[in-house]
Amino acid sequence: MFPTPIAKSSASAQTAYKLFLPIALFIWLLPLLAILMTSIRPASDINSGNVFGWPSDFQAWTNYSAVFIQSKAGLFLWNSFRITVPTVIISVSLACLAGYALAIYRFKAAIPLFFLFVAGNFVPFQILMVPVRNLSVQTGLYDTVTGLVLFHAAFQTGFCTLFMRNFIRALPFELIESARIEGVGEFKIFWHLVLPLVRPALAALAVLIFTFVWNDFFWATVLTKTDASLPITAGVRALNGQFVSQWHLVSAASLLAAVPPVLMFFLMQKHFIAGLTLGATKG
Amino acid sequence: MSDVTSTNMPSASGTVDRRSWYAKNKLRVAPWLFLAPALIFFVIYVVLPIFQSLWISFFEWDGLGEAKWVGVGNYIELMDDDRFYTSLYNNVLWLVLYMLAVPAGLFIALFLNQTVTGMRIYKSLFFFPFVISQVVVGLIFTWFYNPNFGIVGKIWQFFGAAPPSILGDENLVTYGIIFAGLWPQIAYCMILYLTGLNNVSPDQVEAGRLDNAKGWKMLWYVVLPQLKPATFIAIVVTVIGALRSFDMIAIMTQGGPYGTSNVLSYYMFETALSEYGFRMGYGSAIAAVLFFIMLFFISYFLWNMYQEEKVGR
What we know:
A: 283 residues; 2 domains; B: two-stranded antiparallel ribbon
């Protein structure tokens, strides 16, 4: 273990460490705490210059309900769910199939195809922007939730395939071989043997993709224009324009946008980190 | 591992194989059936658009009317475009300064790599900034930087100085945005290193201690070599993050003041899809430049992965 465990150092060093820990955390999360406090203080506080002090009154309910009443935040949040959930399902399913193919079968194209998925996952969004937008306009998918879902699902399939392929490759290959010798069909092997084994990977991918897609801003800006399909990230920006200098409302709306991924992270923490750090421990 | 073709061999007795064509070739066909949905989808939305964009970059096109072939005209125009150079310069700045996230993340990970009551909670709270949308991070920092009621203003007033308008100052603005962007990126690198540290071999650290390695020496010679995979991934995600920076700029400054905080990704968007006119061809040329910069890094990453693949099965 590195650095030396604090338990081995002097009592005063241990106390100092335990004292400094919350202070460091407080400084690190100061930006978040600040908007949390702002989101529950009355507008008069901000106008009178009490921006970072203790709120003169707690108005969480007033502020948060004001966001929903005065803006379409509710609709934007709903749109975000309608975009994110189907994307997760489609991209993870497609990647399971593709990852299985790339991990189990030995064929010449396996490595180049694998690298195609990996490389595609890294390209800058802007090189896709004009053609994807045109395609959406031509197929009538521009400014629809479906259009965003299809694009996100296709793009995230790259990352998911990278992930699934590496995960399936780490499974004991003998299992699949012996099933083949028993005469089990290829799809049945995938469905009954491999799929149950990759459940942890499915969970990890699902939370990761949920967060990535929920937090997307670029494609929401490029592929939508009306409120009917605007997700909350783009919505928050619109609200920022609407609630000019009403920082308590902007803060409340921002926090609302952050709640689902944060919840997701907390509930599925183990899977989330396992997904993010895939490969960080290998080698 | 057996050779897959073995199942395709005619039976040893020499009788005619009466199995169906699929049964005989299933190990050659099956992977393509499994791959088809993902591959078709990926080709339509990711692979083809890259080539279409490169093609469009040779045209002058407003997105609606007739596209006019201009050859390398857009690229020649780029070479005389001051805004392009500003964006390119800022991209380099992003790349270099964003790299600070890697050592900073390592530093925090080392700080948190202890077993004290409640450590798990601390670690996950430290990771928080990464989970939040960059739009929200951008808004928070825009407000922090506000000279009248932001925290920066308060600090400067405390020292009796006139607060700078960070996002309004041509010389400070990019640094201000990068600083905001570092916050979630450091959290990301931190979590990579925390996982890496979990897998550092205690034996080697112990052996290092016996050899009197301490502090920096231990970190440099014993621990860091073992953290190499974590460092590699941290660098990959940081490079990509730096070159993809878009959200923060769109939220905080929209490239302003006077385009001084622009980066290629935002400049491309602005050119192709905003009030500056719908110059799809010119925008695609900018995107192509960004793409080739990225391609340089992607090739390096893939080459690295390929080396590992060869070592594997």
